[in-house]
Specification:
The chain is of the alpha/beta class and 831 residues long. The protein is built from 33 helices and 24 strands. It folds into 2 domains: 373 residues, Glycogen Phosphorylase B (Rossmann fold), CATH 3.40.50.2000; 326 residues, Rossmann fold (3-Layer(aba) Sandwich), CATH 3.40.50.2000. The longest helix is centred in the first third of the chain and has 29 residues. The structure holds ligand 26W. Ligand 26W binds next to helix 7.
Length: 831
């Protein structure tokens, strides 16, 4: 391991060198001067000769300059302070664009606009150049981004650790309505927000074998790895909102330890000369685009160990003072495991404490159990990671040994408690009967706390997913309901609503979101309702402009915007939404209802499917095919429209969410751990149609039944139906609208008369329907009629929308952080 001791501190004599770093002048002139300096000196171009990309980089550099003093001061403070911090370990961070958020944090948004205008530039043109870092798949990745924003805004010492994927989540395009993936080369023009520190690289080892040796009477083990790679940290600013704080996001990228092999090259074997290099650098090459079914690929495990080992070594060897007594590690850090993806960190810390630092096993285990906590984000059994022991043993032989010992000692405790209950032992063993390692069990045994991400989810975790562990570890299981950052998803995404809120209840709500409650009385104020409705209307026009420029799509802003944006997955039931649309369309074209009777609706979809998820890709194809027909059928007279802008991401979400009237949260009860889109929509004045699943339950409890369109089975009813044997066909026969909607698809009405194209989707529903879309259809259609009825009464709808905003302050990620601090981390903000 390279000696990473902190270099000796320089003793400056020049007053400037001794002075604390200061920010440039927060004036238009100051900003112009800094911007031109970054353009001329940073980019080496004159304003007149600058490219749009030069201007973007110069603007980004200028914003960085205004944040730098805070960052350096905060890093120094966190290094010297004895306070406990949070090391958030996540394989994904779905950050979204950085410029506006960093500008917001500095409070220089207006000044920047004026400064660029004074340079003859339009800041909107410049900001449009930013490529969002898509270093995540969906909910889990975006939640991590919201959490680090809240920790910075609350002044909690935190380092976010993750992977700097060279290629993020794929770019989605549609060819003949079908998803096509393209590599996301987000770094092709470089990123102005990252600070690489190759000098702080960590050496990460893989493969090889272990051996034991005698260490004056004590038998010790050591790992003899076969190969290694360099982990190079890239730091990103995580600015707090208007509090002068800046935390750090540290993302690791893989680099070959030894450059390309000249001797092999000179021997003419050019391939071999670079093979080691490419192999090593493959580790941080690309994000795995799965968000539910692990592929169990070796590279994925390499990625997980790579960033976790680098992060633990970085914290233990670089952040902490050299002579820090590691038995007191739990006083300085809690490693939060964002799902099981970083749980290999548990045996890694044990290896560092026992093998490298020479601690006794029990002492090391006592420390480790206090230093980790685990958040589970799923309920799908297939999403729980298990690693075959041969793969783990080959890649990380010492870690497998350590996992075996952790498991042995754990099962001894189980036997102590329950005697030889072999069935229970088999059920609870971290090592599954087939020898695979159950990562969720390891995380639960090692974690000081285990939490779900919504009340219902945490309850199901305890009762159905990990009941043996809840019984064995009383008090270990808790809940922290997810949240979203209001800075990005209200202030930045919806400036119109933000202004109206501030004009009505004053400032301060952005860091104390429960204050939105003060809006309640205004729901009964007609002029406030008017203002609120015109904000929504303006957001719809803005979305229409965006979708037209981005995808050539037209939005009829007289329509209700009925929005379903989330990853494509059968449990989220985009098919149920689609069957509703087809039944609406069918009702019109069959003459059952006249177009005039139908509430004009535009259905907006946004969804990426994991490339290997065939059924999800078929469903995307069907949604586009239905859109093709509905959008061009004169009989519909424009009463219905289906829009499916490709490549749904954070930037598009920031446009779609503020414009939505209806938020679709229609997963099968018991399947969606929480959802966070549901929270963003409620906070932006959309009404929710949803099942009692995930955080929908808490949204409905807070906004009130009368302001939420509930439908469908509850989780216990789903369990009963599943146990009793579910026959989807029964529900088809019971609902003629459902029957004719399915028949219309089977008839080939959306596939040029060729019914075979979407037959796999229809037959999967009629014969299997694993997520019971057909069972909930009738209830869903009835709830949609209630939606139409309320929407016809604009005042009543707007009143309900205002109450949704007023009563959704609970869903701030700041509140989530307070819950984590109180229940799990005990890392109070550092004033
Ligand atoms: C290994 C493959 C894989 C990758 C990612 C399996 C599972 C995941 C994530 C846990 C999936 C995910 O993003 N889960 C979502 O997490 C959100 C944040 O807590 C929740 O709001 C969503 O309900 C949950 O689906």
């Amino acid at each position: 391991m390279k000696n990473l001791s902190t270099p000796s501190r320089p003793q400056p004599t020049h007053p400037l060198a001794a002075a604390p770093v200061t920010a440039p002048e927060a004036t238009v002139d100051g900003f112009v001067e800094q911007f031109l300096r970054n353009l001329n000196n940073g980019r080496g171009v004159a304003l007149s000769a600058s490219t749009p990309n030069d201007r973007y980089f110069a603007l980004a550099a200028t914003v960085r300059d205004y944040l730098m003093a805070r960052w350096l001061e905060d890093v120094r403070r966190q290094r010297t302070a004895q306070s406990k911090g949070v090391a958030y370990l996540s394989a994904e961070y779905l950050l979204g664009r950085q410029l506006d958020n960093n500008l917001l944090a500095t409070g220089l948004t207006e000044i920047a606009g004026e400064a660029l205008a004074a340079c003859g530039l339009d800041i909107d043109e410049v900001r449009a150049l930013e490529i969002e870092p898509g270093l995540g798949n969906g909910g889990l990745g975006r939640l991590a981004a919201c959490f680090i924003d809240s920790l910075a805004t609350m002044g909690v010492p935190n380092i976010g650790y993750g992977i700097r994927y060279e290629y993020g989540i794929f770019r989605q395009t549609f060819v003949d309505g079908q998803q096509v993936e393209q590599a996301d080369s987000w770094l092709s023009l470089g990123s102005p927000w990252e600070f690489p520190h190759p000098e702080a690289a960590q050496t990460i080892s893989f493969g090889g074998h272990t051996e034991t040796y005698d260490d004056d009477g004590v038998t010790r083990s050591r790992w003899i790895p076969a190969w290694n790679v360099q982990a190079v940290p890239h730091n990103y600013m995580v600015p707090g909102y208007h509090n002068g704080r800046v935390n750090t996001l540290r993302l690791w990228s893989a680099q070959a330890t030894q450059g390309f092999d000249l001797r092999t090259f000179n021997s003419g074997d050019y391939q071999e000369a670079v093979r080691a290099q490419t192999y090593a650098e493959n580790i941080s090459k690309v994000l795995y685009p799965e968000d539910s079914t692990p592929q169990g690929k070796e590279l994925r495990l390499q990625q997980q160990y790579f960033f976790v080992a680098a992060s633990i070594s970085d914290f233990v060897n670089l952040i902490l003072p050299r002579d820090f007594d590691l038995t007191r590690l739990p006083e300085r850090v809690i490693f939060q495991l964002n799902d099981t993806h970083p749980v290999i960190g548990v045996p890694e810390l044990m290896r560092v404490l026992v093998d490298e630092r020479g601690l006794e096993w029990d002492a090391a285990w006592a420390i480790t159990r206090e230093c980790f906590a685990y958040t589970c984000h799923t309920l799908l059994p297939e999403a729980l990671e298990v690693w075959p022991s041969d793969l783990l043993g080959r890649l990380l032989p010492r870690h497998l040994e350590i996992i075996y010992r952790i498991n042995d000692e754990f099962l001894d405790e189980v036997r102590e408690r329950y005697g030889d209950d072999e069935d229970r032992i088999r059920r609870m063993s971290i090592i599954a009967p087939d020898g695979a390692v159950r990562m969720a069990f390891l995380a639960t045994v090692a974690g000081s706390k285990v939490n779900g991400v919504a009340e219902l989810h945490s309850q199901l975790l305890r009762e159905k997913v990990l009941p043996d562990f809840d019984e064995f570890f009383p008090g270990k299981f808790t809940n922290v309901t997810n949240g979203v950052t209001p800075r990005r998803f209200v202030k930045l995404a919806n400036p119109g609503l933000s202004r109206l809120i501030t004009d009505t209840i004053g400032p301060g709500w952005l860091t104390d979101l429960e204050r939105l409650r003060e809006l309640e009385p205004f729901a009964d104020d007609a002029s406030f309702r008017q203002a609120f409705a015109s904000v929504k209307a303006a957001n719809k026009r803005a979305l229409a402009k965006t979708l037209h420029a981005r995808d050539g799509l037209t939005v009829d802003d007289g329509h209700m915007l009925d929005v379903m944006v989330k990853r494509l997955h059968e449990y989220k039931r985009q098919t149920l939404k689609l069957l509703h649309i087809v039944s609406q369309y069918d009702a019109i074209v069959s003459g059952r209802v006249s177009p005039a009777e139908v509430t004009p609706r535009t259905f907006v979809f946004g969804a990426k499917a994991a490339p290997g998820y065939a059924m999800a890709k078929r469903i995307i194809h069907l949604i586009n095919a239905v859109g093709e027909v509905v959008n061009t059928d004169p009989r519909v007279e424009g009463r219905l429209a289906v829009l499916f802008p490709p490549n749904y991401n954070v930037t598009l979400a920031e446009r779609v969410v503020p414009a939505a009237d209806l938020s679709e949260q229609i997963s099968l009860a018991g399947k969606e751990a929480s959802g966070t889109g549901n929270m963003k929509f409620a906070l932006n004045g959309a009404l929710t149609i949803g099942t009692d699943d995930g955080a929908n339950v808490e949204i409905r409890q807070l906004v009130g039944d009368e302001n939420f369109f509930l439908f469908g089975m509850t989780e216990p009813e789903v369990a009963t139906l599943a146990d009793g044997g579910y026959h989807p066909i029964d529900f088809v026969r019971a609902d003629e609208n459902l029957q004719s909607a399915l028949d219309l698809i089977s008839s080939g009405a959306f596939s040029g008369g060729d019914g075979s194209v979407f037959e796999p989707v229809v037959s999967n529903l009629v014969h299997h329907d694993p997520f019971m879309a057909l069972a909930d259809f009738t209830s869903y259609a009835a709830a949609q009629q209630k939606v139409d009825a309320l929407y016809a009464d604009t005042e009543a709808w707007t009143r309900s929308a205002i109450l949704n905003v007023a009563r959704s302050g609970f869903f701030s990620s700041d509140r989530s952080m307070r819950d984590y601090i109180d229940r799990i981390w005990h890392t109070p903000p550092v004033r």
